[in-house]
Amino acid sequence: MRKYRQRTRLEPTIALINVVFLMLIFFMVAGTLSQPLDKDVTLVRTADLEGRAPPDTLVVHSDGRLTYRGESVGSVQSFYTARPENEREVIRVVPDAELSALTLVNLARDLRAEGASRVMIVTQRGLDE
To answer: Where are the transmembrane segments (predicted)?
Structure first.
């Protein structure tokens, strides 16, 4: 009688190493690798600043009203034509949090139709410190 030799199964460590290596490469490519800041540079802290709209922005209230520098604006066309030539290319818009997305998209489309090359939406960015 022959003795049946039980074969030992090899663990797939090579396959596991390949998968881990591919994941490492993926995250290196997908992530942003940036140069470190100079040691002499200290970043500005904005935690204590009062939150208000920048002065040269079109503010859109939740009911669709438009204001610019605290004054009411009748329409997108009157706002755009009242701006100086050199300030018409980029328009900054501060929407109210309760404003409908459809209203905001329509406003941006109207500003682009008037001739603005870029419409920038200014939002609050929540950062945990």
So the answer is: 12-33
